[in-house]
Every structure is written in structure tokens, then in C-alpha cells.
Amino acid sequence: MLSLLFFITGLAFGSFFNVVIYRLPRKKSLLSPPSHCPNCNTLIKWYDNIPLISFLFLKGHCRSCGSQISWRYPLVELLTGFIFLFSYLTCSASPKLFSFLFFLSILLLISFIDFDTMLIPNRIILPALGVTFILWLISVFTPFSFLPLLKGTALSSLLGALISGTLISLVVFLSPFIFGREGMGFGDIKLSIFIGFYLGYYVIVSLFISFLLGGFVGIILLSLKRKGRFDEIPFGPFLSLAAFLSLFFAQPIARWYLSFLH
Fold first, then answer.
1. How far is residue 212's CA from residue 176's CA, in Å, rounded to a whole number?
2. Phi and psi of 28, rounded to 5°?
3. Taking the model in full, what pTM does it have?
4. 247-250 contacts: CB < 8 A, separation 24 or more?
5. Is the domain of 7 the same as that of 59?
């Protein structure tokens, strides 16, 4: 029952995350006006705003004007539901549950905003870094362990942030000289530091996976000769997806590898 409750709570948060993803880059209020159709501006009734269920019941169309509703809305709700479920199953009711939910929710928001706008907003990443630093300080000076999320010490979190921030900074500053164009932006540096705090030294695995995923997708797009929207690919979603995979799978893989060596 608790697992189901966390999943449903995640769906509700996902509905709000959709508001943030759409309004924050457009510098609109997150609270006013209430949810409305972006095509006809009709206010959405509560029964048409039930996460996931309303989209399926309306078959992906606005009740008033019939315009199509983006698949991003149920996708974000569903992903947030699974984030809440996986976090609860991993942490149960421990203090680390909050940091799991916070970390993965920020990654989700940044991924979709970066994909839409090619930007990682300071209004999200800077407060996220502030909260993360406070959690790190709590882990250092109190018995409560929030960071790192994976096994290790508070020092590994600091090293993870330093390593990831330095590596991505090198890519940002050297890309114009090597490739003649920017490869990443300063938002990617901030995001990599954020990820490094949570993953500690496992961030090396995360960075490797992100470059692997980015290169794989880039090769596919080049082979399909897709132009226009995909001439430039935001790297934030790859950093975020790699961080998610590393968070849940890097440690088991590392344990298996060590046992294999022995």
C-alpha cells in the first residue's frame, strides 16, 4: 500500500512538474492562472486534470477545442511516479529518501526543459546546488547521513563534484578550439557539479555513460541525416539519464566486478 501511495504521490508531483517545465522557461507564474489549455486558454476542470487518467479518458485531446495534448504531460507524470516508487523501494523511510526524491526530481525537470529550450535555468540549478550543499554540511557535522547517496564518505561527494565539474569545464572551454564550436554550456557545468555531489566518485561511471549515450544518439541522427531541430543536441538529458542509471546500478555492478576479480 505504501508503494502504491508513493507512486500516486509521484503522479501528482509530475502534474506540477509539467507546469514548471512549460511556464518557468517562459518566465510565467507557476501558480496563476490555474491550469488551462495553451491553445484555447479554457480553464481545465479538476476532473480533466487528474494525472495520467484524464489524458487517457480524453484520448489526448482538449475537451473544449479538441486540440491535441502533448504526450510529454503523461510521460512526465508517469516518470515522476516511478521516481517516487523506486526511491521508496530503495530507501524505505530513511533520511536519504528525501535526497533521492529531490535529486531525481531536479534531473527530470532539467532534462525536459533543456530538451525544449537548450538551456538549464539558473532558477532551478542554483537553488538545487544550494540545497545540496546544505545536505552535504548536515552529513559532515551531524550523525544524519544524506550524502553521498551511494556508500562512501562526505569527502567522496566533494571529490565527485570537483571531478565532474572539472571534466565538463574542460569540454566547455576546449570545444571551440578543437571542434570550432561550443560543445556544451555553463549550465552543463553546474549540472555536473550537482550530480557529482550525489554520486561521489561513482560520477566517473556516470560521465562515461553520458558521453556514450550522447555519442550513440549523435551517430544515429547523423546516419539519418536529420537536420533542423537536431542540429544541436542538449547534453543535460544525457547527464541526467546517466546519473539515474549510475545511482541505481553502478554500485551493484561495482560489487559484481570486484567479486569477479577475486
1. 21
2. -105, 155
3. 0.88
4. 247/100, 247/103, 247/104, 247/149, 247/150, 247/198, 247/199, 248/86, 248/90, 250/150, 250/199, 250/202, 250/205, 250/206
5. yes
The domain boundary, picked from 86, 116, 148, lies at: 86
| Cell numbers standing for residue 142 | 551531524
Q: Do residue 107 and residue 74 come from a single domain?
A: no
Residues 6+ apart with CB under 8 A from 62: 37, 39, 40, 42, 68, 69
The DSSP 8-state label assigned to residue 151 in this structure reads S
8 A C-beta contact, residue 19 and residue 35: yes
Domain count, the chain: 2
Asked if residue 193 and residue 239 are part of one domain, the reply reads yes
- pLDDT tens sequence for the chain (262 residues): 888 999 999 999 999 999 999 999 988 888 888 888 777 878 888 788 888 888 888 888 888 888 888 899 999 999 999 999 998 988 887 778 888 899 999 999 999 999 999 999 999 999 999 999 998 888 888 777 777 665 557 788 889 999 999 999 999 888 777 766 666 889 999 999 999 999 888 899 899 999 999 888 888 877 776 555 556 788 999 999 999 988 877 666 655 555 655 5
Nearest to 159 by CA among 183, 131, 136: 136
